[in-house]
Structures are given as C-alpha cells and as structure tokens.
Amino acid sequence: MTIRIRIPAILRPREPSAPSESSALGKKPRALDDLNRRGLLRGAAGLGALGMLTGCDVSEEPPVQSFLRTVSAWNDAVQETLFRPHHLAPTFAPSQVVKPPRFNAYYDIEDVKPVDGATWTLELLGRIDNKQPWTAQQIYQLPEQNLIIRHICVEGWDYIGQWSGPNLRDFLNRVGADPTAKYVYFICADDYTESIDMACALHPQTILATKYAGDTITDPFGYPLRLRTSTKLGYKNAKWIKAIEVTNEFRETFWSKQGFNWFAGI
Amino acid sequence: MSLPAVTSTAHQARLHPLPLRIMHWINAVAIFIMIGSGWKIYNDDVIFGFLHFPDWIVIGKWAQYGLQWHFFGMWIFVLNGLAYLAYGIATGRFRRKLFPVAIPEVLATVGDALRLRLRHDDLTHYNAVQKAMYLGVMLVGIVIVISGLALWKPVQFSELAGLFGSFQTIRLVHFLCMSAIVAFILVHVTLALLVPRSLVAMLAGGPVVDDGMPRSAPAAPEIEATQ
Fold first, then answer.
1. What class, spelled out in words, does domain B14-226 have in CATH?
2. Average pLDDT along chain B
3. Cα–Cα distance measured from residue A94 to residue A212, given in angstroms and rounded to the nearest whole number
4. Between B213 and A3, whose confidence is greater?
5. Which of A229, B75, B186, B215 lies 20 to 30 A from A89 at CA?
6. How far is A133 from chain B (nearest CA, A)?
C-alpha cells in the first residue's frame, strides 16, 4: 500500500486570492476544482495513514508503552479516589436476568477445564489468621447474599445477572483477614490471576458467588467458586478460585501484565 | 516594527491569540487520539453490525493499546477543553465571535454555501453557519465527555449514568457524538484547505484586530507582510 502525505501542499498558501469585490461566480469553478482535488476521501485517507503510523508500532515501543502504563497507574489512583465505599450499584428485577450468563475468559468456552467440586479446596494465604482450607461443602453452607447486578465487559457489552453466595467482607472477617491490608488476590484453577483493592473487597456488593439465577453455577462460569463484584469490570471477577491471598504487596495480574488497566473500576 | 495606526485606546490582538492557537492544536492532537483509539475500542463489540473500523485506521494494534491511548487522551482532551472554555468565556471571545446566532441568517448562509457563493474574504468575522457549527461542536464535545464519564464510571456515577437509561444507550450517545465530531472535522478541514489563509491564521495568528473588531479589513496576506 502506498500512502502519500502531502502536508507541505496543504500548508503552502496559494497566490493572494482575487480581490474581495470579485464576483462569487468567478470563484465557483476554482472552489469546485479544489473540492475535487482535496476532497473528503483524500482527507480521510490521510487521517488513516497517520492512524497507522501511530497505531501499529508506536504503542509497543518500550518508552511509549512505559509512558502509557504510567498513565494507567495514575488512572488507578484517580479511580481509587473516585470510589465510594458505601455507594451501591443499581440492582434489577429477577425478570431482567439473562440466562445463561454470557461467557468470558481468555479462551473459548469449549476449552473450559471443569473443576471437581468433591476434591476442590479453597486455600487461604497471606494476612489471614485462620488459614484452614475450605471445602465446597463448607462454603456452600455459609449464609448467602443475592445480587442482581449488571456485568460490564471492557469490550463494551453488558448483561444483567443474578449471583448468590457468601459476602466477601463477611468471609474475610470469619477467617480473620487483615482488613487494613491493601489487596486481595485470587489464584484460579486455569492459571488466571486477579486482584482487587481492599475497599472493593469490603464493598457490600462483593460476593464469592456459588449460584447463578438460584442454581449452582455451571462449569463455564466458575464452579465451584468465583468472585462477583458490582464495582469492577468483568475481567476482575475471577472464576474457578482455588486460593485467596490477603497482602500488601502489589503484583501484576493476568490482564494487567498485558497492559489492561489494573483497577478497572466502574 | 511599527504598530498599525489605530486608535490607541483599542485593545490590539491577533485574530487568534497565541493561547488559543496552542489550545486549538493540542485539541487537534487529543481528538485524533480519542477518535482513533475509540474506534479500536468500538471494534471489540460493534454497535452496528455493518460498521467495523479497518485495522489500518484505528489507533492501537491490540485492545489494551486502544484503551491505553483513550484513557491517556481523555486527560488532554478534558483539561485542554476546560482551559479553552474558560478562556473563551473569560476573554469574551465566545460572546464577540459566536453570538448572536440568528436562525434565518444560518439558513441563508447554508443556501449561499450550497450555491458556492459564500464570501470568505474576511477571516475575522464568522458567518452564521460557522457560529452554529462552532457552538454545536462545543456542545457535542461537552456531551461526549459527560457520556464518557458515565461509560467509565456507571456505578460510581450511577446518578449520571441513570440519566441515559441503559449502558448501551450511553455507548450509543458517545458514538453519535463521535460521529458528529467526525462530520464537523470533515467540513472544518475541507473548508480550511479551500481557504488556506484561515489555516495559516490558526498557525501564525492572523491579522491584528481591535478587540475582536476587524481593522479597516484589507486582504490578510498584506497584513501578514507588514508584521
């Protein structure tokens, strides 16, 4: 593809224009000619050429990528400031719930590797007093909270889902987690990692979901245990959780390593 | 260097004072980043099945790059835009150059433009269509920022997001504002190229005017030569 950018021609002023008294008719052919020569299509192609120059390679250049990630980290801090710990996300009626939920992962639904609930345990790590692992049966006996909230994907799609399970704040209290720690990490059976800030973990609409629309969640959606919070984008909601760690140490997560925003608050 | 002989009480300034020119070109860069990266983000979940922006026209090879550029560009666009609005209001430039807008005059000017009879020998005076378009694009710019905030923070700003209805409605409003800005840019750039003096004026400042009023209005190139 050959792309010619003729900026100099655009910047160069033409000869002094005809005297202002000249008839409008006299300018007509010239204006038409100009419109044809430097018309909308040509202009659009120029924009695209620049888009290509800035898009394909520049973002991957180490200094540029480093700069963009610094901005992303700054945006994390801004989002932390904007976060309202007691502000609830809108909730919806059971009739609005989409069944089944929409699948999302870093692979296709056919490649989901189901977790065996009978042998599965939840490991607890880090700043937690009681690190005794939990079985699915134990977790499924905890009091449940029901949430009908909007799932928003970073890609732009959304749906309303109904999730139930133990409230994360209650669970962290129960196991003696340090609520002043900065982060809660989730390590998943599919090698996915995700973490949320403590303010989000303690938000009233953050749960460890075990059910969707009243039934035990199915394999593609995180059985036996997944996170569901109303205050983060979809990818923060870790599925097939096998360990929870409470820590002050920031570590990059599956998507943040690849340049997606870590805080991802909505 | 001698100043033109004018009444000494009048305030002398370029048609486009330096701060305005700087903000104009910063805005051009910001808009370029926002539209190109916005198209990349749009492509991940298109609103219209028939519309998918080709890879060569978008900014960001992968989704995360598009997002990174968009959430960087937003700061430039918003901060520069606020500075521009504050400047335009505080200096009285908006009041002098963009008001009043008379609807009959807008229609008459559109008619003239369609018959290619538009006069553009005087850069210092905006015709009714220009006034309407500049005011309109500013309004769209405000709406695109508000809808962008609602898209970014539909939970933290749920009161704002609620005004739009559903999340997809916010996306649509954001998209339509982008479309209006693109349409504006096509017209704006085309006309600037048809009247290159206007483009030069946005780079060099243009003729010296008295507090927004044209100085005995000779042709612009002459004035440039006397500086």
1. mainly alpha
2. 88
3. 11
4. B213
5. B75
6. 34
Residue A1, in any domain of the structure: no
Question: Do residues A219 and A115 make contact, with C-beta atoms less than 8 angstroms apart?
Answer: yes
Q: How far is Cα B65 from Cα B43, in angstroms, rounded to an integer?
A: 13
- What are the two backbone dihedrals, phi and then psi, of residue B52, each rounded to the nearest 5 degrees? -135, 120
CB contact under 8 Å between A24 and B116, yes or no, is yes
Parent domain of A39: 7-13+22-56
Say yes or no for a CB contact (<8 Å) between B197 and A82.
no
Residue given tokens 């710019």 in the structure block? B141
Residues contacting B45, CB < 8 A, separation 6+ = A153, A155, A156, A157
B45 reaches A (C-beta below 8 A): yes
B116/A27 touch (CB, cutoff 8 Å), yes or no? yes
pLDDT tens for residues B15-55? Answer: 999 999 999 999 999 999 999 999 999 999 999 999 999 99
Q: What is the ipTM of this complex?
A: 0.84
pTM of the entire predicted model: 0.82
Q: What string of DSSP letters covers A27-51?
A: HHHHHHHHHHHT-HHHHHHHHHHHH
Q: Helices (H), strands (E): how many in chain A?
A: 7, 11
Please give the biggest Cα pair distance in chain A: 91
Kindly determine whether residue A265 and residue B155, on different chains, have CB atoms separated by under 8 Å. Answer: yes
pLDDT tens track for A142-167: 999 999 999 999 999 999 999 999 99
b/e map B171-203, b = 16+ CB within 10 Å? bbbbbebbebbeebbbebbbbbbbbbbbbbbbe
